């Protein structure tokens, strides 16, 4: 059973959601809204919710190598629906897109006093980006998180001269925010999201910085949130 948790939430990358969104409150008609608690079911709700306008899968973690060299990372994939389901035209082209995705990847090398951040965009046409529930997979080109076994995923991202390749093992199960996963943001109806976290992910793998690779271990946290609302 999922646990319940209320805590101050981290905001998303505001520039990212602004670019992905590019829309005002008037653009939300036809999309599903978060209007009250509803049962969350796993593994189905690990995957995408395309009836809602906006969604993200947000990973952060702290990692150390055997010598105590410390790294922090952030890896997020955002999804934004182009049109509500009932307004999406049927198109034969493999390049036709119903969803736009943005990825954000950042790595901090504390001892090396270095921070690098990268972003990229793609539509879901031609398999460039996407998300699925079973088996769980979220990807944007070669940046990806994908299920490798029960409660275990592999996270991979590389850009510039840095990369991460991590195995994440869930030690706790989903933690539901707010009222059983219904997270109210403001007084207006629908100004809310469905929101859970995997708050304790044992993490091990390799961090690459330049021509050096560091076997690492640590802990990660994943947030998954979806809505049709300003957050």
Structure write-up:
This protein is mostly beta strands and 231 residues long. The protein has one domain (51-86, 94-227): AttH-like fold (Beta Barrel), CATH 2.40.370. 3% of the residues lie in helices and 52% in strands. The chain contains one helix and 14 strands, in the order βαβββββββββββββ. It has one helix spanning 14-21, and strands spanning 3-5, 54-64, 70-81, 99-109, 114-123, 129-132, 137-140, 143-149, 152-159, 162-170, 175-177, 182-184, 192-209, 212-227. It is globular, with a radius of gyration of 18 Å.
In a few lines, what is going on in this structure?
By secondary structure, this protein is mainly beta. The protein has one domain (51-86, 94-227): AttH-like domain (AttH-like fold, Beta Barrel).
List the helices and strands and how they pair.
Blueprint: E1 3-5, H1 14-21, E2 54-64, E3 70-81, E4 99-109, E5 114-123, E6 129-132, E7 137-140, E8 143-149, E9 152-159, E10 162-170, E11 175-177, E12 182-184, E13 192-209, E14 212-227
Parallel strand pairs: 1-11
Antiparallel strand pairs: 2-3, 2-14, 3-4, 4-5, 6-7, 7-8, 8-9, 9-10, 10-13, 11-13, 12-13, 13-14
Series of secondary-structure elements, N-terminal to C-terminal: EHEEEEEEEEEEEEE
Q: Low-confidence stretches at least 5 residues in length (pLDDT < 50)?
A: 1-26
Quick one: CATH superfamily?
A: AttH-like domain
Largest sheet, strands/sense/barrel: 14 strands, mixed
CATH topology: AttH-like fold
Instruction: Kindly state the number of beta strands.
Output: 14
Proportion of beta-strand residues: over 45%
| Quaternary structure type | single chain
**What would CATH call the architecture?**
Beta Barrel
Alpha plus pi helix count = 1
- Per CATH, the class reads Mainly Beta
Q: How many discrete domains? A: 1
Cα Rg:
18 Å
């Amino acid at each position: 059973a999922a646990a319940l948790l209320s805590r101050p939430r981290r905001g998303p990358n505001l520039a990212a959601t602004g670019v992905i969104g590019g829309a005002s409150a008037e653009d939300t008609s036809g999309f599903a809204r978060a209007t009250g608690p509803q049962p969350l079911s796993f593994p189905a709700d690990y995957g995408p919710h395309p009836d809602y306008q906006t969604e993200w899968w947000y990973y952060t973690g702290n990692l150390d190598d055997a010598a105590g060299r410390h790294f922090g990372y952030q890896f997020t994939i955002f999804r934004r629906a182009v049109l509500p389901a009932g307004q999406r035209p049927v198109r034969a082209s493999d390049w036709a897109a119903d969803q736009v995705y943005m990825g954000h990847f950042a790595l901090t090398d504390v001892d090396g006093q270095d921070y690098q951040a990268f972003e990229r965009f793609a539509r879901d046409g031609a398999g460039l980006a996407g998300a699925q529930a079973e088996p769980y997979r979220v990807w944007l080109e070669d940046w990806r998180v994908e299920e490798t076994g029960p409660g275990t995923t592999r996270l991979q991202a590389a850009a510039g001269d840095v990369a991460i390749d991590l195995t994440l093992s869930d030690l706790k199960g989903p933690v539901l925010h707010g009222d059983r996963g219904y997270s109210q943001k403001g007084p207006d109806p629908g100004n809310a999201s469905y929101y859970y976290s995997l708050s304790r992910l044992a993490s091990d793998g390799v961090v690459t910085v330049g021509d050096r690779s560091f076997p690492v271990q640590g802990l990660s946290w994943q947030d998954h949130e979806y809505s049709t609302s300003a957050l």
